[in-house]
Amino acid sequence: MTKRPTDAILVDLQQFKDLDDALQRIALDKPFDDLAHEILKTFLGRGGEWNHSLVFFGSAVSRARALREGIVREIAAANPHATMTLLRQFAETVAMAFYVADHPKYVEVLMTRPSETKKGAPNRKSVQALVSYMDANHTDQFAVVYSELCEMAHFGTIALWSSHQTRDNEDGTIGWSWSSVPAWKTESEALVCCAQLLELSDGMNSALIALGKSLVGTAEQS
């Protein structure tokens, strides 16, 4: 996700031969599990014990895997509404994982429901604050991508037109069609989602590595 003078989302579609190739590229068996097991092995080897950082790490891995597997299924099922909504949640998970990796004590804030937060205690960060944090510290185009995903998840412009198709008729008029069956408008739309999934997955791997370093640090301090 590299920033450019325009707000266009720039992803590498040349990495795919076609949609079938892209689907093969994004399909992974037990995503994030190998990395998680390696980190946990190091943590336990250093004498690590149950703590809140460990709880967050495990939950982040489980959530990331669940969302990623769901995204792969929905891309294959040609369901842009579900795909982009899940991608949005995956992006939020990546942002939260990075923030907690950089601010380990924030886990304590997540342990309590907002309605049960005591007066004077730190409040949770808004999603927008986490998105802005990503662009300020880890990426250059996170907010642009997230905004586009929200246009589908929040029933914005992208969601509104997703099920409609227009065409130019031979008599100069414009034809229109609508279907209740989810479908990609173009193959490139699906390829963009595949590319975004791969980029977010790389981001999640980096966040888990950072979380792992923080987690191992708690073991060394105990």
Describe what you observe in this structure:
The chain is mainly α and 222 residues long. The protein has nine helices and two strands, in the order H-H-H-H-H-H-H-H-E-E-H. The protein has one domain. It has a two-stranded antiparallel sheet with strand order 1-2. A hairpin with a 5-residue loop joins strand 1 and strand 2 (174-178). Helix 2 (33-45) packs parallel to helix 9 and helix 4 packs across helix 7 (142-153). Residues 1-7 have low confidence and may be disordered.
Separation of termini? 38 Å
- The total count of helices amounts to 9
Quickly give the structural class. mainly alpha
Helix fraction by DSSP (H/I, runs of at least 4): 55-70%
Q: How many beta-strand elements?
A: 2
Question: Which strand order do you get reading across the main beta sheet?
Answer: 1-2
Low-confidence spans: 1-7
Number of structural domains = 1
Rg estimate, integer Å? 20 Å
Q: SSE order, as H and E?
A: HHHHHHHHEEH
Largest sheet: 2 strands, antiparallel
The percent range for strand residues is under 5%
Mean pLDDT: 91
Shape: elongated
What layout of secondary structure does this protein have?
Elements lengths: L18 H8 L6 H13 L6 H25 L3 H23 L3 H5 L16 H11 L4 H12 L3 H5 L2 E5 L5 E5 L8 H35 L1
Antiparallel strand pairs: 1-2
